[in-house]
Amino acid sequence: MTSFYRLSALSAITLSAALSMTAGLAIAGEKVSADQILNALQPKKPLTRGLSAGPQADPAVEAKQIRFVDTLRNRKTRSLSLGEREEIAEIAATKPKIDLEIQFDYNSADISKSSMPAAQELGKALSNSTLKGSTFVVAGHTDAVGSEPYNQELSERRADTIKRFLTEQYGINGADLVTVGYGESKPKDTGTPTDPANRRVQVVNMETKTASK
Questions:
Q1: What pLDDT digit, counting tens, does each position of 45-85 carry?
Q2: How many CA atoms lie within 13 A of 6 on its CB side?
Q3: Residue 6 to residues 73, 79, 91, 137, 185: CA-CA distances in angstroms?
Q4: What is the band of 30 on the pLDDT scale with cuts at 50, 70, 90?
Q5: Cβ atoms < 10 Å from Cβ of 153
Q6: How many domains does the chain have?
Q7: Residue 203 dihedral angles phi and psi, to the nearest 5°
Q8: Structural element, H or E, at residue 149
Q9: Is 48 part of a structural domain of the chain?
Q10: Residue 205's domain spans which residues?
Q11: Chain centroid to CA 152: how far?
């Protein structure tokens, strides 16, 4: 198992097997700034009344989603059931999101020195007042090299590492960061499960503000 995750801002992410999502802006293999991350994670603006742009969100469905996300606050990553992980994926599919290229030390959950700037830019973005109170999912993914149990555990550890970094270094409220691991189960490149592009940690703005707490 090689040692890095790949995160890239998505403009089209497909919910293939429930978390290879659609929509975004793609930043891959280049230095990403806090502003780019901030723009990708901005909550969707409500449509002006009278404008038609497809089906509108069902308030009852949104309320149910908010209640579900609230149950995830302060949960340990490994405590999430398969059903809960899939439900997170389904909700996250339509939310603002970004993948950043973050590498980890070999066979480890420690952020590599070369990837620390990207992690720092993420911390700056999530500290911005315009995102205050939002709940973010930090989802770990691996490629298919190695066993499924190993990859599942590694994806969880790496998601936990990002959460710990954000809370300790940037004072992000831990209850606003939901970590989940998907191992090799949701590749970005479904045609090539072993492709390095599948090694990534995705950050999703679930758009549940403090009003929901």
A1: 654 444 444 456 688 888 999 999 999 999 999 999 999 99
A2: 20
A3: 25, 24, 22, 16, 15
A4: low
A5: 18
A6: 1
A7: -110, 125
A8: helix 148-170
A9: no
A10: 4-43+57-212
A11: 15
